[in-house]
Design a protein that fits this description.
739 residues, mainly alpha, two-stranded antiparallel sheet, two-stranded antiparallel ribbon, 2% strand, Pentatricopeptide repeat-containing protein, repeat
Length: 739
Amino acid sequence: MVLGYLISVPSHLHLPKLSFPSIFSRRISGSLLHRTQNYSNAHNELLDFFDHFLRQIAITRQCQQLHAQILLTGSCHSAFLAARLVSTYSRFGFLDDARKAFETAPVECFSNLLLWNSILRANVTYGEYAEAIRIYIRMRKLGVGGDGFTFPLVIRACALFGDSRLCRNVHTHVFEMGFQCHLHVVNELLVMYGKLGVMGDARKLFDRMLVRSHITWNAMVSGYALNYNCDGAFEMFFMMELEGLEPNAVTWTSLLSSHARCGLHLETLRFYGEMRRKGIDTTAEALAVVVSVCADLRALDMGEMIHGYVIKGGFENYLFVKNSLICMYGKHGAIRDAESLFSEMELKNIVSWNALISSYAESGLGDEAFVVFSELENSMVRPNVISWSAVIGGFVTKGRGKEALELFQQMQLAKVSVNSITISSILSGCAELSALGLGREIHGHVIRAMMNRNMLVGNGLINMYTKCGSLNEALLVFEKIDVRDLVTWNLMIAGYGMHGLGNNALKTFEQMVKAGYRPDGITFISILSACNHAGLVAEGRNLFNQMIREFGIEPQVEHYACIVDLLGRASFLQEASDMVRSMPMEPNAYVWVALLNSCRMWKNTDVAEETASRVFSLDSETTGSYMLLSNIYAATGRWEDSARVRVSAKTRGLKKVPGQSWIEVKKKVHVFSACNTCEIGMEDVYNILRHLGLHMEIEGYLPYKRFMPRDVGEDINWERGIEGELSLTKPLEPKIVIL
């Protein structure tokens, strides 16, 4: 009966394009001519026949045809052939067919490790780690033990699945089965512990190893790199050389990656130079790391040089290298180069799209980023959380919070899970718009998603609550953050300062220093601003001196602007003026405007005129300086000079942006603008304001009519009054400021 099948196999396969070695043809022909050959040899001949063709086939249809023939001939009872079928389907990416071939295998095949290993490898290869773990558990229940091929696959699945309990259980199974000295198994355990972030356990395992290979050392260096431990990575690298094993390209790449991840960019470039000097072949991965370092260092010249080496070395077809180049050019603002690289790419993955979107967003080109994002939505690749977050962050950075919030709502409708960066960006948008209600809703989402312990999210919540006027809620978030960074402290100090609570800001600053955090330049800007808002002049002076003397921080122009404003507001105008003159750098417009504003407060026209001339010499396009000087003249009765300054501003084409304030009532935002009383539904508000004004006058609180500033953009009609002073011919509309 078997010989009959042997005769029919070639005629039914229909595989004309496949070549078949002559030795197999002779064997089959021999079996047909000599019917006295025993059954066992004929069966083995048939298995070899199918195995050979399964390894040779190039298209899926041929695999399906062979599968049919295997079933017809009864060869499916071979565990070896069943395993080969699973591997072949997996090779073509047909994981479902591979699983069907596995599940339909005869019962006797399930005692053979070849079949289990083939389906485990298929699932791990295509990222189905949970399924691979389920198969392993099923295998254990059937009493089938793993071998040196099973355990590396299962360990890799557990590590990538990210379940530390499962990982340790599998490690226990390794010991139970006696594979604790198996080189490949232990190497995979080292990689696993590196991915879990427990390099202490990896090091103990490494130290007990009697035999080590390049893979062993590379696993340790990569593990330390993955966990941002560049010292550990360098120690392994150095030990490897001491033991007489030459680090290869993978080792060097891991060393470069470890230092790049730790922010040691110059060290990374130094090691890359050393690698080149030693004649180690550069890998595409190493080049991608160096390109990313050039992006972070803002070293465009170096990046362009590496780009030249990428082309010369034939690495330009590596997708991840090109993606790194797009990011590098984008971070340097060389958008045209980033666009050119992107358009040249025949194959684009989600990283490619995100690199270009991020390039536009970081360059402040929110509309262009959104256009590329829209193209991505219409392509075969779907936007992921990074795509959405980049566009949302781009809108927020440019002050377009409303559009950012609308995009965030679309993201939720698209059922894309947010991450900490998305939440941080959208909270910044809420802070900009003072959308406290929406900020609270997002806070609730954060708690439900168990993201409330994330430092980036916590910092975003503090920033949102302080800017939306809810300092108590900001303090509650601050107190619940277990692990704080310098940004957390800076935000809380700035929040207290913003609300005029200078003493609270000083106490928080002292707590921060006692907790072992070293303040930076931003810390001192926040604390000096807090002293400024609270009028704490002595404390501000001490902090300014402490910054230099105790913490070795050289004051920048922003710090001088704060201290000048503080002194000027407290009537120490001469001291503020002297400080401006003694600055080690050229004062910018902010410093001069701070001094000019102090002159307005104390009606000092002499210092004001000199200061204003300095501001105007900076070619500042802001209207504020002109308005301040004009108001100073008006406050001292110099109406003609006031009018002259305003006309000068108008001649330059400068127009003051009307002041605005807004308040959210019952989920509706009401905006109040200077000189605009036409908002529908606001009639009652303005009527109440007029009544309040009348009550103020009745109780003796009269407006100071001598100083009534106007917007430059409006027509100003001046006329000579009875006492010879200039006055406005029409009264100002009331202004509303909502605090």
